[in-house]
Structure formats: C-alpha cells, structure tokens
Design a protein that fits this description.
This protein is of the alpha+beta class. The protein has a domain of 47 residues. Helices cover 51% and strands 17% of the residues. The chain has a 3-stranded antiparallel sheet. It starts with a helix and ends in a 5-residue tail after the last helix. The protein binds zinc ion. The site of zinc ion has 9 residues, from helix 3.
C-alpha cells in the first residue's frame, strides 16, 4: 500500500502515463466545463466529483470503505 501511495507522489512521465491509463480503466473523466474530475463508481454507480485526481482517489477510497452500500 505504501508503495502505491509513494509512487503517486512522484510526478514523473511514467507515473503520469500509468495514472492516465488507470484513469481510463476506472472510467475517470475530466469535465472541462465544470473543471472537475468525474467518476461513476464501478461498485454502485454513484457519481463522484473532485478538483483533481489525487482528491478523487481519496474520495473514491472513502466511498468504497465508508459510504458504499452496493459493493460490500
Ligand atoms: Zn459504491
């Protein structure tokens, strides 16, 4: 877990590439009009919004751990 978190802190091109690839895989989208990241969660279909990807990751993890009623 700490390895994943520390890799997110490093702003190198490969990490960005991986993040973008991951974003596509998870359905993360950027709303250019609202200037927010948008994600429809895979677990229950709830829609999440965040100002950046890092915050989105936190919101998504919080959702799956504490809020989600559809996954676990
Ligand atoms: Zn959910």
């Amino acid at each position: 877990m700490w390895q994943m978190l520390s890799s997110l802190e490093i702003p190198d091109p490969f990490a960005t590439f991986v993040a973008n690839k991951y974003a596509k895989a998870t359905g993360l989208k950027y709303d250019f009009f609202a200037k927010e990241w948008y994600l429809k969660t895979a677990c229950c279909g709830e829609e999440l919004y965040a100002p950046n990807k890092k915050t989105m990751t936190k919101i998504r993890l919080y959702h799956t751990r504490n809020e989600c009623l559809g996954g676990y």
